[in-house]
Amino acid sequence: MVTAVIPFYNPERIFAEVIEDTLPKVDYLILVDDGSTQNVDHYLLNSSKIFMLKNLTNLGKGAALRIGFEKALELGSKYIVTLDSDYQHEPKYIPTFLEALKNSQFVIGKRNFSFSKMPFMRVLSNTITSLVLSIKTRQKIYDSQSGYRGFDARILRKILPVTNEFEAESEMILKAAGNKIAISFIDISTKYDNQKSSIKAFNAIINFIKVILKY
Asked: For the whole model, what pTM was predicted?
């Protein structure tokens, strides 16, 4: 059984397309509203395959992922795929993740780091964090900040994040290394369309350093 987990906060119109294109590729779709201040009901499809979870306040992506993972495990999922709500991650790659998960327990979508494809600050930030994590984990981490990921449910409880913000994705990589879980990568395309990142750079750096020191 395959479950997709999509965390979101005050989504844009394209959120409806993400839901529509993801649903046929999975058995269940878990949407985690991380304290949105706007009504999102008009984006939702009427489907028994969809589960909506909600944080009363904005706790952060890590917190949203954690409750989504816990629900996916409760449902008895075999594979769990995470993707973003803004269509930066195209649902068409879900079958590619599932194929990769036949031979790996943790798969990350590797983006194209061309400056023509990705904003400069994202390339710089991801290059630095990926290098640090590669050194720390002693395995090549090609894209540490990609949120498009696939997991075998059997290892997910070992790497569930406890941090609440974006550093949770780095935390999961470190926990995987600590549990001797190899990480595989597949190539994906990414759409940006001048979207603003919700990552606050200074706080993200501080939190990343804390995670590195902790693990």
From this structure: 0.89
